[in-house]
Amino acid sequence: MPENLLIIFAKNPVLGRCKTRLAKGIGPENALAVYRILLQHTTKITRNLKVDKEVFYTDFIDHEDNWDSTIYKKELQRPGDLGQKMQAAFEAGFKKGYKKIVLIGTDLITLEASDIQKAFEALDSNTVVFGPAQDGGYYLIGLTQMKPELFKNIPWSTAEVLTRSLEKIDDTYQLLQIKNDIDTVEDLAEIPVFLPFIPLL
Questions:
Q1: Does residue 201 belong to any structural domain of this protein?
Q2: 45 with 116: CB under 8 angstroms?
Q3: Beta-bridge partner residues of 4
Q4: How crowded is the C-beta side of 108, counted as CA atoms within 13 Å?
Q5: How many domains, in total, are found in the chain?
Q6: DSSP letter (8 states) at residue 85
Q7: Residue 93 lies in a domain
Q8: Following CA atoms 101, 120, 174, 133 in sequence, which dihedral angle do they give, to the nearest 10 degrees?
Q9: Range of the domain at 33
Q10: Domain holding 149: CATH number?
């Protein structure tokens, strides 16, 4: 059994249910189109990684989507806030016997396979690895052992997420390159492929 597991948290691409902050600026139809591009990108950069891969859906498991069921095992996120969902996913992975687990979302058009590979390499000599996001959160977290404290009492969706998380670490950790996830119209403006979805002012 491989020792490395990549967990991908993905929202089901349902109109009005994904990229809701973005939808306020460009409308739900355009927000869904943007999210589909992000999903396709995440599939493209992860499918050939030499690790086990699991996609955790928010609402329902879709066996007919772009996530090839022969490559990605499909799971459902547990109920609760983001911390509870991530904690449950990590606990399930470690219970299966994985030694290094990395979790990502599906909001980064600039994320590459090499970034994920660097995260696994960082866990050779560190207990925790984070991919910092420009908004103060993180786009990636990796662990070599369960750290429940990282998922409790964190002000999710705020600029304090990474800072508060780092305060809880008493082991070695590494930070990857800072990247910007796609949450607002301003985020779209930085990426040429998304310019057609930005309404004219």
A1: no
A2: yes
A3: 100
A4: 26
A5: 1
A6: H
A7: yes
A8: -80
A9: 4-193
A10: 3.90.550.10
8 A C-beta contact, residue 28 and residue 15: yes
CA atoms of 122 and 95, how far apart (whole Å): 22
- Does some domain include residue 77? yes
Contacts of 19 (CB under 8 A, 6+ apart): 11, 31, 32, 34, 35, 182, 183
How many other C-beta atoms can be found within 10 angstroms of the C-beta atom of residue 131? 27
3-class DSSP string for 110-175: CCCHHHHHHHHHHCCCCCEEEEEECCCCEEEEEECCCCHHHHCCCCCCCCCHHHHHHHCCCCCEEE
pLDDT tens, the chain, 201 aa long: 679 999 999 999 999 998 988 999 999 999 999 999 999 999 999 999 999 999 999 999 999 899 999 999 999 999 999 999 999 999 999 999 999 999 999 999 999 999 999 999 999 999 999 999 999 999 999 999 999 999 999 999 999 999 999 999 988 999 999 999 888 888 888 888 898 888 754
In a domain, 200, yes or no: no
Give CA–CA dist 74/201, Å, rounded: 41
Inter-helix orientation angle 28-46/113-122, to 10°: 60
The C-alpha atoms of residue 106 and residue 171 are separated, in whole angstroms, by 28
What the block records as the tokens of 17 is: 């249910």
